[in-house]
Amino acid sequence: MEELLSWEEFKEVYTNWIMFRYEKADKSGWKLHIFGTTLEDSYDVMTRIDFLCRTKNIMYKVAHTAIMERAIGNPEHMQYGKICAIYLPNWLFHDDAELKLFIEELMSTLDGYKPKGSIQGDMMLTDNIGYRYELGVPVDPKKGANYFEYNRWYRDNDGDYNIKGNPDPFTDLKLEYDT
Questions:
Q1: Are 48 and 107 in contact (CB under 8 A)?
Q2: Which of 29, 31, 120, 146 is least buried, going by the fewest C-beta atoms within 10 A?
Q3: pLDDT for 90-106, tens place per residue?
């Protein structure tokens, strides 16, 4: 298994995002965001969630210096607080129990993580985890969208967490982990 960057190595990188591509499945169109505003928050989240995402083959990215300077740490910017994005694969939606289990495991992994806040355009699940749908057309999350469909249907954050007529698979989840 490949080792994560040390803090010293991590803070020397200059880029927008550091991407971890473990996923092999089609994307559901839904993603989670974790709130944070500093490079330290980004590193903390990466070290907390990597094992969970790696073992479940789920792709994620963490914000880094370049985007931190102009967006993530700026309360006036649309990207403010979006320190991490986790792209939920279609297989997580085959069974409500899978989605619920992953979110509860994520919440447990973030236990003790202090930054709290909301992310513009997201529906918040907890005081530091939000979610939103990022495609411009409804897609059955159980089927998902392949790479080409996903890129064709992608929409920028317009301030709404979902599009009209697209069911929200998170509304009926009864999460049992309390942050």
A1: no
A2: 146
A3: 999 998 899 999 999 99
Task: Tell me the CB-side half-sphere exposure of residue 106, using CA atoms within 13 A.
Answer: 28
**Structure tokens, 160:** 């709404």
Number of other CB atoms surrounding residue 108 within 10 Å: 12
Q: What DSSP line would sit under 96-154, residue for residue?
A: HHHHHHHHHHHHHHTTT-------TT-EESSSSEEEEE-BSS---TTT-B-HHHHHHHB
Q: Does domain 15-153 have CATH number 3.30.2430.10?
A: yes
Domain extent listing, the chain: 15-153
* Stated pTM of the model: 0.90
pLDDT in tens, 34-62: 999 998 999 999 999 999 999 999 999 99
Strand order across the beta sheet in which 27-35 lies: 17-20, 60-63, 82-89, 27-35, 129-133, 123-124
